Amino acid sequence: MRRQSPPVWKVYWRCYGNRCKRRTGTDAVTAKAERPRSTFEKMKEPDDQDTDGGKSDRSKSDRRQSHSSRSASRTSMKEDHKSIDDTTGEAFTEGEESYIEDDESYVEHLEGSSSSFQDDYTESFGESRYMETPAPDAEEAEEEVKKKISESFFYDYMELVSMPFVTPDSNIPLDLLTLVHSFGYDCRKRANLQLLESNTVMYIAGNQLIFLNLKTKEQTYLRSSSGIGIGVIGVHPDKTYFTVAEKGVFPKIIIYEYPSMRPYRILQDGTDLAYAYVDFNFDGTLLASVGGSPDHTLTIWNWKEEKPLLRTKAFSQEVFKVTFNPEDDEQLTTSGSGHIKFWAMALTFTGLKLQGSLGRFGKTATTDIEGYMELPDGKVLSGSEWGNMLLWEGGHIKVELSRAAGKPCHQGPINQIMLDEGEVITIGSDGCVRIWDFETIDTANVIDETGLLEIEPINELQVDKNVKLFSMIKMNEVGNNFWLAQDSNGAIWKLDLSFSNITQDPECLFSFHSGAIEALAVSPVTYLMATTGLDCSIRFYDFAGKTPLLQMKFKQGGTALAWVPRLISYGGAQITAGFEDGVVRILELYDPKGLTVFVGRKKVSDADIRLKQVFKPHTAAVTALAYDRDGEVLATGSKDKTVFFFEVERDYKPIGYITTPGPICQLTWSSSSHPESTLLIICEDGYVLEAPFPAIKEEEEDHDVVSYEIKDMCLKYFHFTSVKSKILRLIEIERRKKQKELKEKEKQERRKRLETEMGEDVEKELQGEEEEEEEEEEEEPLPEIFVPSTACHILCGFYSEPGKFWISLGGYDSGFLYHCEFPPDDKSSDNTVRKDEPFDFRLLEDTEDNPITTITFSINQEMMFCGMQNGAIRVYILSKNDPSLTSMEDYWHFNMHDNNYGRVNAISTSFDDRFFVTAGADSNIFVFNIFSEFELKKVVKAKVPSPRFGIETEPIPEDIEDPKAYSIENARRKREHDKLMKEVEEIKAGKREQIKALRNQLQKLLQMNEELPKHMQFKRTDFDLDSKIRAEIGKKTANKIQRVEKELAWEKEKHQLGLKKLQNRFRDSLESDTIVVHAIQSDHKISSYRLMKPSKYSKTKRASQSERRPSKFERFEKEGTGRKDSQRDTGGSISVPEESVIEKGKKFRPKTLSEIMVENQIEKTRKLILKAERAQMKIQQRKKEWEELYKSKPDDDYEDPKDVQAIKEAQLFMGDFNLKTASDYKIPEHMRINAAKKEEELGYLDSMAYSKKMHMNKSIISLRDLKVAVIEEIQCLVQELKTIQLTLPISKHLPIPQVPQIYPEEVPEKRFQYDDETLLAFKQQQVKSQDEKARQVEQTAFAGSAGGFLRLSSGKEGDLTTRDSLSRASKASTFSLDLPKFTEFETADPTDVELEIMKREEIKHVYMQQYLINRIKELIVTFDAELRLLRHQKLKLDIQMKLSDLHHVTLFQEMLLLKNFEKQENILQERVNSLDKEEQDMQWKINETLKEMEEKKNEVAKLQDQEKALYAGFQTALGENNKFANFLMKVLKKRIKRVKKKEVEGDVDEEEESEESSEEESSLESDEEGSGSEDEVFDDSICPTNCDMGLFELALQLREKRLDIEEALVEEKKMIDNLKKEHDTLSKKVKIVATNLNAAEEALEAYQREKQQRLNELLVVIPLKLHQIEYVLFGELPSDLSGSLVFSNRSLGRLQERIVQLHEENSKQKRLNKECRERRKQLIREKREMAKTIQKMEETVSQLMISKFGRVINLEALQTLSVNTTLEELKIKKLRKELSNVKEMKMWEEKIAQVRWELMMKTKEHTKKLHQMNDLCIEKKQLDSRLNTLQNQQGNAFQGPRKADTEARERVTELIQVQAERIQALKEEIALLRKKGGLLLPPIHRPQENE
Predict the structure, then answer these.
(1) The pLDDT of residue 1835 is above 90
(2) Dihedral of the CA atoms 1556, 1557, 1562, 1566 (nearest 10)?
(3) What residues are paired with 452 via a beta bridge?
(4) For 395-446, how does the pLDDT look when each residue is reduced to its tens digit (9 = 90+)?
(5) Which of 179, 281, 910, 1612 has the most Cβ atoms closer than 10 angstroms to its Cβ?
(6) Cβ of 315: how many Cβ atoms within 10 Å?
(7) 3 state SS of 1717
(8) Is the pLDDT of residue 702 over 80?
(9) Helices (H), 759-812
(10) Helix axes 1363-1383, 1235-1285, angle to 10 degrees
């Protein structure tokens, strides 16, 4: 079935989707459809009851009134659900819903603007969202519940899709514009790349969903249903459905079936305005959606039933993403701005609801979270803005992951995290894809307070430069690991993440603009189009052939484009582009196929582009480019408020520029219909200018002109002033006028009608109605005139007639097109303060908040194309030659770009009006076909212009890439400034020459002054004209030096940091540099090792992730043969609680007799207890010794640990073993290797090699130091030798040995020592090297710098002498120079003695000369010998190091191989460990079960023994020959069902059955029941006559005990049965686990074998000499050595020695076996004798006990026999209680005596009062009698009563009453006192008035 909707439904969705009105005459009619309601809308939230309830009546009436002017068409969707309200979520139980066709439609008129319609629409929906809908009848509800959505049900796409709006009653076709192709891609939209098939992707482009075939590059389009845009898309896990979540007011989620593209399900009421993200669960049965601002609603849908299951508010800020946990559908995660939230579906007592837990960042800075991933165990791994990964557990950050050395995982935010094939994949904004080890991340934990853990990626891929990855999806290609990546810098990439030898490089499949497209230009001759944006690229397209041609990148973003007209470039090959740095470039497009083709040239593209010319006229972004109608002048406008003119014919020679009041937004030249060529300049801030055609100067240039500014140009100004409020006021006045006219007309008609009906009474009737109407009518005030304080921006405009133009504005003034005219030129007025108003306007429907941003016309001016702020396209149909737009009424409107941020920035038609192209801020470019009745169906394609002749030989001009480069104007000003500065410098040079001449003159005067006598000379200060001048000059010099130092401080710091970085990079990591020590006489030399700092392998040891499982033998050794109880009995004293007694004894007071009795009793008890304790301790000690003795007794299967270890070693190291290359080789557990162990081995090798090299380096350094010392000593000896030779004749001089020198490579550390001379020499060498060629620059610079340092070192160390040697040499030289001075004064001939002395001195000097020469030779020879010896050692070490390097390579290869195997090995090892642990746990449970069964069996045996003892005791009580024995026994054995309270009612039958079975199983009852008669009936409730009543009662009591025992037996047996079942179950499970464990161990062993085989395949280099090879064939070395083995001589000798050892060991074992057999026989004999002795001693003990005690007793019980501690304690308590009771009784007796005495006193007092009362009564009686007598006597004298008598009588009467009351109170008090414990109340006093 199909769900049909009335036509009004379609009309509404089309109209509202495009925010338009359907007009019929003057009334606007709009059809509006209300959304279907679900149960969620019918519910009232608890928080909303007060607000909604109070507004219910008022809202209904308001709705009636408001809906009187609106349209409403409702389709009801009735559901039967049970709803649950909760603050965090609302759950919906599964129900059934049906669709009821509702054909009723209501169309009402709407008056007002579109904005009010939109507000009313939103308001009505907002009010009605939570309003209850009328409930259906019961019968209808029952029928609807039975209905359900069919699996084959589909919606009609044509009913859902939004269509273009066309003005009613117009002839505009719906297909006026038809989408042909899309060249854009919204690369910054979240999740905007989804894969449906292996070659089909889909993405959102504005209001379209585009399906792109990756192979054919064909596009298919799916239209939005709302017409307001698409929020997000998603794909079902099975790729059979895809989701389109739209935008708008209460948008829908539409699920389409793929590949049929039919709407399958529609979900409604999930959010208010737009969806932000959707996601299916792993099975695809549920769908999660999250809304955007303002509600951010999270909804879980049963999408096949179109029902929301759960709903809640996700967060208060923007939510980026929501996903299900792949492992658990009841867990979800949301993330967004500054938060991450973890959700769970919890079943509470109120039903199912969503519970959210907000992630707590703790010490970590709060970050926006874009990418995250749920781990299988519930943890969540997320990214961060700074590039690190955050591992969340339990709502908190468990650890933050970064790379080594504190580097982040990515340079920038991590946008997506995925788990693929056991590896974690992260993609970041730095363009990198990194692969991480899942196990490392899953087991990551904090190691220090920083909370950081450093890890390194397994692999990484840098896609390309300037790539910002946003999302990735995996392609479904078998055998490949290809991914598609969304690049937010405008590309779709294909990535190969296999990371193998055949991995393909990243391939860019498609390239697009990134961000808003700023400008668009279309070729005037063919179907070519160019676009540019702030992404620094210009792209060219063949929009007819649907092909992107090429792109060109620049340093700055493009802002304006203009295709050069055909008048300038006939082939349409040139295009002008403006950029944001103010540069304008002329580009030339050509077809490279037209160029000369050379052999071997690469594939030629379809188009190419080259830079033809470049110039910079502006200092800010170029916003407009325009060629005049004749193609002579190019005008450029910019944000720097200037318009520059260029002469095109003279290679764009600058003409000049003019300044404008505001930034330029558009330039338009007048058309050919205008008499003059003028330029319309539109500024953003409300100014519009008109400039005439600039005057072009002649060839000669005016070099004297300083600036290009044109100051004499006559400009016309128009400053727009807002008139919108006036227009609205006029419209309101016109509306009211029409309304009055209609009323007058109605009144006239009514008058006529009433005249015909009523006749003469018409006037009165009408007069009364008029009075009522005048009273009722109160005219509302007209709208006020409003002018914005700041001018609204002008968006676009165009010429209408000469001096007139149309403009469109944004902001408050939007909604109209304004027709303006330049006012007459008034040079006296100030243009900045003028205010001009338009003279005409055109109302634009639905543009109140959606102004027109750009306008273009067709060639024939019959269609006006408009681009809107919300991304829509509007086409107005105009009449010919209608510049005033009088016919602008009918239009075609369609939403194409994104409604939120897809503003249309540029539109254009093709040169032949066949195509229409749009470019928006949402990166989308759409190409449309324009409807034509004569449309050609043939395929068209753009033709790229042919290249000009000689274009390939033309030099490419130098581009302006520096954004700080001078503009044309600034360059001219700079040139003038430089000219001026040059003149100033010439003046300065003249002044300097004058100063120089004066300085020379001063020098001459000073010289003449010095030649004068001193007393005539002037002082130097006398020549100073002013002393302050010199001080000022010195101060200035110091300030200049200080300023220069400050200026160079940054450079100094920079170079210091650079030097420090170089040292850190190259020098600090170097442990020791190469030192080459040369021999002195020979050519031998020795060099040290160049050592780096130790590697990471030698520093750290990586922990093995999977520890080896201990073998069963090892566990057997650790745990023993079985699990034994660890708790042992320990003998301890039994503590008796006697603290209270001791504390009382400590009190210092005299003791009473009772206390002494208590203390004696306590002391007696304590002694008995201590005695029993000592006996108990002895018994416990004896038991402990016996237990230890029995424990030391070996079991029958006991084996000596030494023998076990020997057997184990024999199994491991003896026997016929396979080689490692064998297929069935089994790797012993101790020989298994993993990557961690291999790293340790590698580190050990590195450390060993490092230590040996360091030792050798130290030896070489010591040798170098020795050479330095030798040279110093030789220098001293040579100096002494020279001194000696000064005294010897020349004939006896021997040649002086040459002093050896230190080579530069012997002291490499001196290369880093420098001084000023070195730096100056280096600087001079650099200056010289700059003049040479580029190739020689590097060589010369390097050699020069190194040579400079070397020459410095050699020059400074020319003599290589230390301070000591120099001092010694200087001393020697001074001594030798003094000798000839003595001889200078000797003029006389020497005597014989002197001659003899001189001869002796000569002989001595000759000897010393020879000795010193020999000493020098000895030093040299000794040093050379030391060097040769060390050289031989180093050669041997070189061999070892080379072998270690080879071994290092082998180990490294093995480590890499082991790392590849490590992951799977860890998995297998973990499985083996888990199964082994499970087996151990089950075995332990089995042992525990067996123990419990043994305990229960013992309990059963005890109960059976109690039952036997019960019967035996009763039999003893009966005695012999009791005639009632059978009766009493039957009474005892009678079965009685006793009622017991059961916890579970269902167990009653089982209990009865168990009782019956237990009774039947009773061994003692079976015989009795068989002998008894079943027919015999007896009454056990009455004791028979003559039967002992005591025995009968005893039988009844014992029967109760028997029943208790039987019930206990039943319970115990039941528990035994349960334990048996549990034991059987566990045994079966143990077998299964053991089988699985064996399988896992076999799999692990196979994997280890495979790993060993792969390790065997690695090549190992072993150097051998020929004599070491014994594998020869026919006396020759075989060519193939693959079958040979390499054995060390030591191992071979050990094997040969092992043969002899085995023979000796065999004979030794035989001898030991024989001795052990004999020893065993002897022990067996001794054991038998000991058993006999023990038996005799036991018989002796039994006889002694019988003779002493009469029976065998338990000696231990006898020894430990003591008093009953409890009884004694009770006796002591009893004594204490009696004492306390006596004291208490004595106290109460005293109290009673006191109370009795008080009672007696009270009685006496009351008796006395009674006597007084009696006396008073007697006195009263007497007074009464006397009074009567007096009355009788004086009655005659006083006839009337007197006043005094009356008052006295009253007083007496009151007194009597008071006394009577007192008497009564006393009587009551006496009566109470007579009673025991009576309550004594105070007497009642009557209140007296007089008191």
Answers:
(1) no
(2) 70
(3) 400
(4) 999 999 999 888 999 999 999 999 988 899 999 999 999 999 999 999 988 8
(5) 910
(6) 19
(7) helix
(8) no
(9) 762-776
(10) 10
* SS3 sequence of 136-166: CCHHHHHHHHHCCCCCCCCCCHHHHCCCCEE
pLDDT-derived band of residue 975, with 50, 70 and 90 as boundaries? Answer: confident
The pair of structure tokens assigned to 1159 is 């203390």
DSSP code at position 470: E
Task: State the greatest distance between any 2 C-alpha atoms of the chain, in Å, as a whole number.
Answer: 207
Cβ proximity of 851 and 815 under 8 Å = yes
pLDDT at 112 over 70: no
Phi and psi at 1720, nearest 5°, equal -65, -45
HSE toward the beta carbon, residue 1834, CA cutoff 13 A = 11
Q: Write out the two tokens for 543.
A: 């929009």
Distance, CA of 854 to chain centre: 43
**Residue 842, strand partner residues:** 817
Cα gap 789→779, rounded to integer Å:
30
| Residue-level pLDDT at 916 | 94
SS3 of the chain: helix, strand, coil, percent, to 5? 45, 20, 35
pLDDT of the residue at 933: 56
Q: Measured at the alpha carbon of residue 543, what is the angle toward residues 539 and 544, in degrees to the nearest 5?
A: 155
Pairwise CA distance, residues 682 & 408, whole Å:
50
- pLDDT at 1381 (0 to 100): 37
Residue type, 1761: L
Distance CA 266, CA 3 (A): 12
- Tell me the backbone φ, ψ of residue 269, rounded to 5 degrees: 65, 45
Q: How many CA atoms lie within 13 Å of 118's alpha carbon, on the beta-carbon side?
A: 18
- In the chain, the percentage of residues whose pLDDT exceeds 70 is 79
Give the single-character DSSP code of 131.
P
Residue with tokens 């509202």: 16
Q: Identify the pLDDT of residue 212.
A: 94
Q: Give yes or no for a contact between 383 and 471, defined as CB atoms under 8 angstroms apart.
A: no
Question: Per the structure block, which two tokens stand in for 807?
Answer: 């403009």
Neighbour count for residue 1108 (Cβ, 10 Å): 14
Residues found in the chain: 1891
Distance CA 1603, CA 1611 (A): 12
CA angle 682, 683, 685 (to 5 degrees): 140
- β-strand pairing of 794-801 with 804-809: antiparallel
Interatomic CA distance for residues 1663 and 1660, integer angstroms: 10
pLDDT digits (tens, 9 = 90+) for 676-687: 999 999 999 899
Distance (Å, rounded) from C-alpha 620 to C-alpha 630?
28
How many other CB atoms sit within 10 Å of the CB of residue 1482?
19
Query: Tokens 């001194």 belong to which residue?
Result: 1283
pLDDT digits (tens, 9 = 90+) for 48-101: 433 343 333 433 334 333 333 333 333 333 333 333 333 334 333 333 333 333
Measured CA to CA, the distance from residue 491 to residue 506 in angstroms comes to 12
Peptide bond into 1882 cis (omega under 30): no
Instruction: Please report, as a single letter, which amino acid is at residue 1463.
Output: K
Beta carbons of 543 and 527 less than 8 angstroms apart: yes
Residue 307's closest CA among 91, 619, 559?
Answer: 91
- Name the E strands within 660-755: 664-669, 678-683, 687-692, 716-719
Residue with tokens 């299988």: 376
Q: Which residues make beta-bridge pairs with 1588?
A: none
Q: Tell me the torsion sign for CA atoms 185, 187, 192, 196.
A: positive
Q: Which of 8-22, 1209-1223, 1256-1270, 1376-1390 has the lowest mean pLDDT?
A: 8-22
The token duo for 508 is 């860019």
1584: Cβ contacts below 8 Å, ≥ 6 apart: 1524, 1527
Cα–Cα distance between 511 and 513 in angstroms, integer?
A: 7
Evaluate if residue 1265 carries a pLDDT over 90.
Answer: yes
CA gap 1765, 1176 in Å, rounded: 15
* Rounded-to-integer distance, Cα 1772 and Cα 1319, Å: 108
Please name the amino acid found at residue 1886.
R
Residue 293: count other Cβ atoms within 10 Å of its Cβ.
13
